[in-house]
Each structure stands twice: as C-alpha cells, then as structure tokens.
C-alpha cells in the first residue's frame, strides 16, 4: 500500500482545539447525512443455544435468516461476563484519554496498519474519516507486535489477551452453527477459515465533531474479513447499515456483541450470507469508542463457495480466491466494492 505522509494532528487533537468548522479534507459531499434514520431490527441470537450439538432447528433457522437478511446479529449469552466487557471498554477509554505524547509511543509507521494513528491517506483526494484508531494483531500470538500494545493503562495487555481468547471460542461456535444452519457438515466453514487465520483488533475512537452532518466517522464499506465482532460503545450510537438502498441505525444492546458477516464468508456461502455495507456517523455531544475484531483467513488459504451450495438454482457466484485482503485494498482505493473482484 502506498501511503502518503500522515497528517500532523490526530482527529482527537483537532477536536480538542475547539474548532468551529471542520477542515476541508474531512467534508463529505453527501446530502444523506442530514436526514433521520430508522432503526434496523437486528435479530438477537443466543450463542449458548447454538453451542449445543442438539440446537433446535428453530434457533439455527433464526441465525440463517438473520445472516441472509441483514448480515448481522446481536449475539447474547456469548460467555463473556458484563464485568469483563466493561473492563475491555474501560481500557480502550483509558488509552484514548492519555496525553497525545503517551499515545504516540505506539504510533503506526507509514504504510503499515498496525499501531495508533488516524485514517490512512492513500490519495490526495481522499476524504478523511473523523476517527483515530489503535490497530493490533491479536492472533496467532507469535505475530503480535507488542511494541504497539499499550503498557498504559496497566492491565490493557492482559485484558486484550483474554478478550481474544474468548472471541476465538465464540468464533468457532458461530462458524459451526452457520454451517449447520445451511445443512452442511459443521466444519465446512471452519476448515476454509483455516488454522493459520489471524484476528486483528481495531479500537475506533470518534471524537465529538462540531459539524457532524458534514463528516463520517467511517465511510461506507463492507468488511474484508470472514467475520467481524464489534463491541459497541455502551451509550453512544453511530453505526449504520445499508439495506435495500436505505441507511438504518444499529441499536445498542448492552452486553451484546454485534457480529457481522465479512466479504469472505459471503464468498464461502455463495452469497447466501450477506456482508453488509455499513458506515459510522459522529455527533457534536459525545465521543464514541468501539472495538472491532476482524477474523481473517491466512493469505495463502484458498477460499471459495462451498460446493454443496452451488446448484442449478443457485449457480456459483464467486471464484476461489486467495489473499482477499490485498484484493480488497486495491478495489477499495478505486472506490469499488471489493467483493466484485471475486465475482465470476
Ligand atoms: O465503530 C463502529 O461502529 C464500526 C467500525 C467499523 O465498521 C470497522 O472498524 O470496520
Ligand atoms: Fe466495518
């Protein structure tokens, strides 16, 4: 990725300087930001029920229908206690509340995604997202770059480590249940996902914005992952999902994990499960912090539609692909939906 020089100021620094107007580089020419948006009814799924091998057909059907309807679920009973989720949120808040010089010890380098910084600038004309991020590889553990893992707040590292262990369990339960919901052998998605896959965490920090109707926290995109698990801010909304050409708000369900299909599972499921296009809005009153964890197959792992999901009624939609994330970035820069690169 050819990245241009990063900006001198993070968005957090910009927002703290009491500006009344937003710098030109962040302003969207998108009039859809000024309207109000309906709430999306995202099905709530009990992961405890899915984890048992005798899961009722009804629960599996609920999962299948949610993932083909809007591509996401609000997962509850996922095995992470509310006090532990509070801690995960707290270390995120504490990190972004540190002085700039302290956070900048973990700054990412130009051209690499890992570490602390603001939106990556890939072209002069790019309209920037109103957000700062801390991006960390969680697994496999030997790929972790601890130099980017904050030592302050004190328990940041151990809490994030524990979080990644727990999400690994959640991911397996989910991938198996997804296969069963389509009457497939339960390991068929898990096998394609592979045992060399990586989990990457992205803390997203959205400072308050003096002109929220002019900017986006994150521009519209679908995730290049297989699965994404999002721990939303407990109090501040902002995420929206595009469905049938309309934007919907994603409600906050305290203690739920918002889990969405990424492009790679859309490909594996031959388009049955949908990788939703989504974006983030900001507001002028309260900052918002979320933690997205992307689950991504190893670049050498070939992924493609499961054979049993291809037939005359539903012909093969996607090619087999490797290293989807690289493809993703090439298309993304051209302003196209990356998954088009995998269409037959
Ligand atoms: O912060 C959010 O609500 C969503 C962030 C997101 O879409 C992403 O990190 O890919
Ligand atoms: Fe996303």
TrEMBL record:
Pfam families: 2OG-FeII_Oxy (PF03171), DIOX_N (PF14226). SUPFAM superfamilies: Clavaminate synthase-like. It comes from the Eukaryota. The keyword Metal-binding applies. PROSITE patterns: FE2OG_OXY. Residues 197-297 form the Fe2OG dioxygenase domain. The keyword Iron applies. One of its GO terms (molecular function) is metal ion binding. InterPro entries: DIOX_N, IPNS-like_FE2OG_OXY, IPNS-like_sf, Oxoglu/Fe-dep_dioxygenase_dom, Plant_2OG-oxidoreductases. Keywords: Dioxygenase, Iron, Metal-binding, Oxidoreductase. Belongs to the iron/ascorbate-dependent oxidoreductase family. This is Oxoglutarate/iron-dependent dioxygenase. It comes from Corchorus olitorius.
